[in-house]
Request: fold
Amino acid sequence: MAVKLICAYRSQKSERVSIQYLTNTRKVLDPRGEVKYIQGYCENSSTIKTLLPGRIERRFTSMKKAIEFMPVPIEPEDDRSTNDNFRPLVYSNENTADICFTGFKNKDKQELAVLAEKADMLVRSKVVDHLKILCCGNNAGPSKVKSALKVGATILNRQQFEHFIETGELLNE
Reply:
């Protein structure tokens, strides 16, 4: 089983805090047995990343919790204390797992959205800059597919998406 690390990490260069999601992580120890750094595969950038333990602000069990931790803009009329349905606006960025469903009947789209949200993905109604997956039904429009390809999203059908959610693997067809 792949070990994952989801954390808020303070960049050494810019002091900016970002969410890091690494899989297949390993700890590299110094001669005293202390963790020197942590390495893992970042799927967003398709690279190996190295993190210094002292720059990890906080660890999380899911992307949803990590995104909730990050500061987000809240309009003055939004009041968390009086609105039980309050859901802060989360901007798309390189650390969000954004997915968009297109070409499905509403009932099917809602079922797929529930699956995605349970997997800590952010469901978008349109193609955004950092979209990771466009899941297409039989009535998918060519302009949305073209837009998704332009931002580098992976295009999946329902079967491929459900397999991905179940196993973490992408089916090739």
Remarks:
- The longest strand covers residues 17-29.
- The beta strands are 5-10, 17-29, 35-42, 47-51, 56-60, 98-102, 122-124, 131-136, 154-157.
- Residues 98-167 form a domain with the Rossmann fold fold (CATH 3.40.50.10190).
